[in-house]
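Milestone M4 deliverable, item 7.
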Amino acid sequence: MAIKEDLRAIKEEIGVEEQFIESLIKGERFFKKYKFIIIGAFVLLVILISGFYINDVLEKRRLDSTNEAYELLLKNPGDKNALELLKNKNKPLYEVFLFKEASKNKDEAQLRNLLNSSLDPFLKDIVKFELNDGNSETFKNIQILLDGYKLLKDGKVAEAKKVFGSIPLNSNLQEIVKKLNHYQGMK
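Output delivered:
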């Protein structure tokens, strides 16, 4: 009996080794068959990862250089090189700097020029507000929001909801309005 068990154990061991070798051969055949596709996919993956990394590094350098230029301009607003660098590499920050300087100097002509340039909508509203232009929709909505909040604080919930209702549904302030309506100004 011991010999039969030994033979059975040897057969099982040989069977396991045979299956292992068989799977290695299948894997080798698969690799040979799709070698170029596998290598190409690996190379493409390496190129993509490298590209994203390089892009991140370049973007960080660009932001660092524009931040340094902005800091220089804050210290010395007459620095033409820093102003030109900011204009070429970060137009929104350049426009914010121009707005800051025009507001500080109360230069209405410069503010009007900024209003006509390609600003983002929020900065355009701020420029309109600075010019005391009554067409600033965002600031009108903020004033409505503040009026409604005062009514909530006074306990006039129904009146506040009517005031909040005059804020357009597509306004950026709608999320705040919903929260104020929900909590009724208590939190």
